[in-house]
Amino acid sequence: MTSRFRVVRTGDPEELAPLDADETWIRVEDELPEVAWRALADLVADRPEVELSIEAGDDLEALRWFPGLRRLGARSVWLRSLDGLRHVHGSLERLTLGDTRRLVSLRPIEGTAASLRRLAMNGTWSDTDAISTLVGLERLGMGTIDLEVLLPLTGLTRFECGLGTVRQLDLLPEVGRLELVELWRLRGAHDLTPLAGIRTLRYLLLASTRSITHLPSFAACPDLGWVSLAEMRGITDLRPVADAPALEVLIVVGMPQLDATALRPLVGHPALRAGVWGLGSARRNAQATRLLPLPPANGEPAPWECPDWDGIPSPWAT
Question: What is the mean pLDDT of residues 291-296?
Answer without folding.
Answer: 86
